[in-house]
Amino acid sequence: MSLSKIKHIVLVLSGKGGVGKSSVTTQLALSLSLAGHSVGVLDVDLTGPSIPRMFAIEDAKVTQAPGGWLPITVHEADPTSGLGSLRVMSLGFLLPGRGDAVVWRGPKKTAMVRQFLSDVFWEELDYLLIDTPPGTSDEHISLAETLLQKARPDQVAGAVIVTTPQAVATADVRKELNFCTKTGIRILGVVENMCGFVCPNCSECTNIFGSGGGEVMADDFNVKFLGRVPIDQQFIVLVETGKRPRYPEGTVINGQDISAAAKEAEAEEAKRDTAQLVLKYKDCSLAPIFKTITADVVSAVEQRGA
Fold this sequence. Notes:
11 helices, globular
């Protein structure tokens, strides 16, 4: 079975579109890999598969093996540096073009989700992150039902819920928390995304969408609040162009000066910009934030298994 070599399955959910689930999934995957874990990412957002673009591997082609697919390798493990392997699978790899629309009714979506969970040949993985579409409809129901049928009882570790601070977002995301309760999916915690904006021209981080809505929601449902993640234009540039993040002197995020790494980078810019995405990400302002979030997620998963 496709899931047999996977230790832990973590879903990334939100009842609201546009809150940055794929961004959170990508950074969780990179952070887990940097922590030495072998990671897989399964993109089941069938009508908006953005994971290939997030990892800058849109041109990759899936290899068909007898009875299924081989996932795309983002990078291999490097035991000398403590880096874990990272592999991904998405419908985006199977479409002829990046702008092609997927116009499918519910039954075909359901069949595709089930096929992804049974016909992708993952190697030994510590974590499989599943990036989901917004809402609580066909894909989510199929995902929950299939995991209950095919996964081991201890294999589905739980879900990371993503929201933005505004009340209009948390109102929809609360429905996702209720969905988890009804389907028996454990909630590992809530991430409040887009909480602040890191200015690329000065050292300010401004709460343009407010702050605190995700934490209040987490308290209301008595689940762990994992942290706040600001919008960082440098992360967008990294994903879109591969350019290593660099910040003005004095830029402080969560009490940490992140401009020092940029100064050191200037001397070896050409060499460093040929590095892997995961290594460039270490210089991003969001990397230390997700390091903490990832550590909390791993701790919650391991406590459950203990």
